[in-house]
Amino acid sequence: MVHYLPFESGNRKHLPKGYIPMDTRASAPEPQAHGRQTANGAGRAAPRPSREEAEEAVRTLIAWAGDDPNREGLAETPGRVVDAYEEFFAGYDGDPYDILSRTFEEVQGYDDLVMLRDIRIESHCEHHMLPIIGVAHIAYLPRGRIVGISKLARVVDIYAKRLQTQETITAQIANAIEETLQPHGVAVMIDALHECMTTRGVHKPGTTTITTQFTGVFKTDPEYRQRFMQLVNGQRPVTVK
Question: Is residue 127 annotated as part of the catalytic site, yes or no?
């Protein structure tokens, strides 16, 4: 389920109390593939161009925009852009299933929720290649196995650092956790700003998009969904500067 909410005055990071989104399911699970992939998990459709070809493409775009790619201020821009793209889209070379495969079973009987809040998301929309900036909240109810919490954040980065839609990222994260850890349930929420609708087109600055994905007990039991939402909206620790 996708929810579009206006950004209220101040720093709105949390949802209204009592808000319980409905479930959304991906049309197909993320395949357990290794190596460079497209955002939806499929293999690359064509060989990767060389760095020189990528830089030449940037020069073409600069010229198309109406400027001179050879002038002093732009002479090194193609190389900088390609460097940035290597960072922006590093997720194509990552394998979230491999990251989640390293688990722990010695948890002294722990059987309650494991949750990470406010994981920063930096992605790019596949329609306009403009930034998607926001936060993700992830929870799962273990079934005997847990994974290092940093691994959950790395999974978010792997999927986010591709050309994406927010709906796809949300489903992929949930599916990867569900399939590798096989917990009693998974809950994922992403709240993000899309520059493709804040800086162009409809020009609606401050509008955020919220997507959710639930599996297992989070899908079937309203009390677990309510608890997840309460934790999402809960008080944050005071940051010591």
Answer: yes
